[in-house]
Write a structure and sequence with these properties.
CATH topology: 434 Repressor (Amino-terminal Domain)
CATH architecture: Orthogonal Bundle
Helix content: 40-55%
Strand order of the largest sheet: 1-2
Distance between the termini: 20 Å
CATH superfamily: lambda repressor-like DNA-binding domains
CATH class: Mainly Alpha
Number of helices: 5
Strand content: 5-15%
Shape: globular
Order of helices and strands: EHHHHHE
Length: 68
C-alpha cells in the first residue's frame, strides 16, 4: 500500500525511532511500512495517523489493481 508516512514524519520532525516509540512498535516496523514492505494493522494505521496529526486517507493511498 502506498503511503506518505515519511513525508508527514519528517514534517513533524520525528525520527523513525520516535514515531515507533509513540506507536509502541519497533523502528524496523516503521521502516518496513515506509518502504512498502509491510502493511500495518488497522489499529497501527490509526495510531500512525493520530501521531502524525492527519487522517488515514492522507497517510495511506490504496493501490487499485487494473482490470484485465
Amino acid at each position: 500500500m502506498k503511503n506518505n508516512i515519511k513525508q508527514y514524519r519528517t514534517e513533524k520532525g520525528l525520527s523513525q525511532g520516535q514515531l515507533a516509540d509513540l506507536c509502541d512498535v519497533s523502528r524496523q516496523t516503521i521502516n518496513a511500512i515506509e518502504n512498502e514492505k509491510y502493511d500495518p494493522s488497522l489499529q497501527l494505521a490509526f495510531d500512525l495517523a493520530f501521531h502524525l496529526q492527519t487522517s488515514m486517507e492522507e497517510v495511506f493511498k490504496p493501490q487499485r489493481k487494473a482490470k484485465s
